[in-house]
Amino acid sequence: QSPRSAASLPRGLMIHILLTSSVLSFGLVPAITRSSRLRRLRPVCDVYASVSDREVAELLCDASADDCDVAELEQRPMRLPPPRTPTRAGYVADPSLVSWAPFTYAEPYVRRSAARDYARTTLSKLPPLPPLRVVLMGGVAAGKGTIAPMLSQAFRVRCIGVGELLRGETRARRARGLEASHVMAAGVLLPDELVLQLLGERLGGGTDASRNGWLLDGFPRTTSQAEALVGGSWAELRPDAVVLVERPDELAREFALGRCCDSATGQTYHPVYAPAPAEICERLVWRVDDTSDALNRRLSDHKRSVEAIVGVFESAGIPLRRFDNARSELETFGEVAEFLRSVAMGKLEAARSDLAGGRGRKMSLDEVGAAMQPSPADPADVAPYCFLDEDEEECLSRFQRERRRSAPDDVDAFCGAGESEGECVIRYKEEAGRGELLAAVQRCNSYALREFTPLLVGDEQVGWLNPTVLEALTTQLAVGRACELVEASMLRSEAAAAAAGQCENGFAVRIAPGASGAKERSEFAAALVEELVEDGVIPRSKLRHELQDVHPFSAGFVAAGGGVAPVLRMERASMIYFGVPSYGVHVNGWVRDPRRPSSREPSAMWVATRSMSKATYPGLLDQMVAGGQPTALTFDENVRKECEEEASLPPEVIAAIEPAGSVSYRYATPKGLSTKVLMTHDVEMPQGLQPLCSDGEVEQFRLLPIAEVLRSLREDLPVWKPNSALVAIDFLVRHRLVSESEPGYAELVRLLRQRVS
Known about the structure:
Blueprint: H1 11-19, H2 23-26, H3 29-34, H4 36-39, H5 53-63, H6 70-74, H7 108-121, E1 133-138, H8 144-155, E2 158-161, H9 162-171, H10 175-185, H11 192-203, H12 208-212, E3 214-217, H13 223-230, E4 241-246, H14 249-258, E5 260-262, E6 268-269, E7 284-285, H15 292-315, E8 320-324, H16 329-356, H17 365-372, H18 392-405, H19 421-432, H20 438-442, E9 453-457, E10 460-465, H21 467-472, H22 474-479, E11 483-487, H23 494-502, E12 507-511, H24 518-534, E13 547-550, E14 568-571, E15 582-592, E16 602-610, E17 621-623, E18 625-628, H25 635-647, H26 651-655, E19 658-668, E20 673-684, E21 698-705, H27 706-715, H28 722-734, H29 745-751
Parallel strand pairs: 1-3, 1-4, 2-3, 4-8, 9-12, 15-20
Antiparallel strand pairs: 5-6, 5-7, 9-10, 11-12, 13-14, 15-16, 15-18, 16-17, 16-21, 19-20
Helix pairs in contact: 1-5, 7-8, 7-16, 8-16, 9-10, 13-15, 14-15, 27-28
């Protein structure tokens, strides 16, 4: 559908584009869903042509049952969108809607840049803003899906869609999801209580969305749902602001009937307003519910309900503003952002009044804003982002400051003050070398082991101490009760003796040498931690008051309840100071070449872009699924949980996940020797199955060809989360997609398997 002529195009290509808006009236949705021929746009994306009923019927039958009657179908009415010609644009707007004329649809990088620039030029000059809770409303094709990610990036709020949450529940085949699917299949609205429970779990309590703020898309849809948000038992879901974006019905129809989606990236295109690049046209798909009848019904439903919902929010005193979105979404974003900025500042002023209570010194807005911030991130992997001339505390402070105030883009964590993104990438490439994968592995493996002293329980090693912590324990070492120095020659364990022997001082430190069991050792460990806190080695603000099991290196990871008792338990925040390893799970989702179904060689890989609202590494590339390893779960249990929550994978795909070994690395920080062990897993994703982000932690999933993954790791390493780059390289090495002629191949493979001990 385009004003341009399509007379020279094959008629079959034209039919593919025009069919989808008719499939519902034919009752052939199952056949259309199965057939990639009818769902995909063929190599030419921007065509318009009138086609005969006979040609449409033949193609429909080709995708349907063997006994399809072409003659019968030929007589059925074709409800195709109205035609476009070089002189007819399609639907015509109301003349009073003058703002429709400049309507445009910018490319994704332009929208990201606009959000980043707003945060840098406007929000960075303000006090730290409190977390915002925003409801985003709008009718079909009003532009909510375009505005929401921009607001998420600028204000660091977690973008949550009710539809995605429900689809995630359904795909994971949880009881609540199955109940919802049955209700929706019957054409009945979901019970409010069911949806509110789902939202309460995702947005309330101690969730990341509750701490950092949220933007709710697709809810409420009824007055009863709106009333539940503003009071009663669901008061924790009460929004700070409501944004209503609007477009005229004519423009909504025009955009919806022409929009298509890249099946690999989820990016929306339109033949007039956002033409797709020619090279991706094979991947484009239509939404089968974007038909004239369906659109008219949805537009009518929205009109009937929206004013009553608006009335509920206005009566409750919640700031609400309408925005005309029949123009450039960049203009709309600018106005919405200013509205939310004023709401956030009002919330800050109100908090200052509450804190002052009419007594004592009036706090500054900066002090109030700092007090309202979520717990600061303490990313364990922050060291690979640090500059050579700054210690980790300086680096972490800069990282948090940039994350909070300047909405860092994909490479900002590597960039210096006043350095543009382009300059930053160029500098990084110059420092890291020219396209060698080894650079990615080396940045996570920077340390000198001789500077660290082994930490033992009995003769079993459990960690490492750096010189700073060792010096801070001097008094306790002299007393010899909470800990003692042991010469390498006095150790019975060959592994412990070897570790102490390679240390510059030739000693190891044994914790709680006279303790009779784990409970008593834990008490000694708590005393050591408290002393390090009092001496300023461990900041008191970092304490989480949560104990974590400690096991010998030789035992590896041991899940709680696994039948193996820990040798002691320590404050979680102190683990890195004592060099105790931490664990995680990563899942690589890969796809084979559909043209070579018998080949097991991966042709593409699913890659996640982390949400811009994430506390650590926002906007960077990650595995399809990844997460830290809690001691309460086994690796298998954690993989299942993360796959359900982060990618909404169905049970049969989760069951097909295969363990693929581990990636381990370590690097020196001012706190201690950070040691990580990531258990890696692979799963072949079925053709056409796209991971679904239902919890808002992923900005988007992209299916990248293997060649593009390699190119990105070589040329754009800063856009990858550091340890995720390691896991991706490990995947490529294991599947023989990296040649042994790769520069530094032997060292690369060695560094992917760093010894923990």
